[in-house]
Amino acid sequence: MMDKAKLARNWIFFAIVSFSLTFSNAMISGRIGINYGRNGDNLPSAFEAIEHLQNMNAYRVKIFDASPEVLKLLSGTKLQVSIMIPNEQLPDIASNQDVADQWVIENVLPYYPKTMIRYIMVGNEVLSVKNDTVLWYNLVPAMINVHNAIKLQNISNIKIGTPLAMDIMESTFPPSNGKFRDDMPVYEVLVPLLNFLNKTNSFFFVNVYPYLSWLENPNKISLDFALFTANNSSYNDPGSSLNYTNLLDQMLDSVHFAALKIGYENVSLAISETGWPHSGDIDQPGANIHNAATYNRNLIRKTTAFPPLGTPARPGVVIPTFIFSLFDENLKPGPRTERNWGLLNPNGKPIYELDLTGARLDREYSRLPEPWNNLPFKGKIWCVAAVDANVADLRDALDLACNGGNGICESLAPLKDCYQPLSEVAHASYAFSSYWAKYRNSSNGVHCHFNGLAMQTTIDPSHGSCRYPSVTL
Ligand SMILES: *[C@@H]1O[C@H](CO)[C@@H](O)[C@H](O)[C@H]1NC(C)=O
Ligand SMILES: *[C@@H]1O[C@H](CO)[C@@H](O)[C@H](O)[C@H]1NC(C)=O
Ligand SMILES: *[C@@H]1O[C@H](CO)[C@@H](O)[C@H](O)[C@H]1NC(C)=O
Ligand SMILES: *[C@@H]1O[C@H](CO)[C@@H](O)[C@H](O)[C@H]1NC(C)=O
Ligand SMILES: *[C@@H]1O[C@H](CO)[C@@H](O)[C@H](O)[C@H]1NC(C)=O
Ligand SMILES: *[C@@H]1O[C@H](CO)[C@@H](O)[C@H](O)[C@H]1NC(C)=O
Ligand SMILES: *[C@@H]1O[C@H](CO)[C@@H](O)[C@H](O)[C@H]1NC(C)=O
Ligand SMILES: *[C@@H]1O[C@H](CO)[C@@H](O)[C@H](O)[C@H]1NC(C)=O
Question: Which parts of 362-423 fold into alpha helices (H)?
Answer without folding.
Answer: 391-402
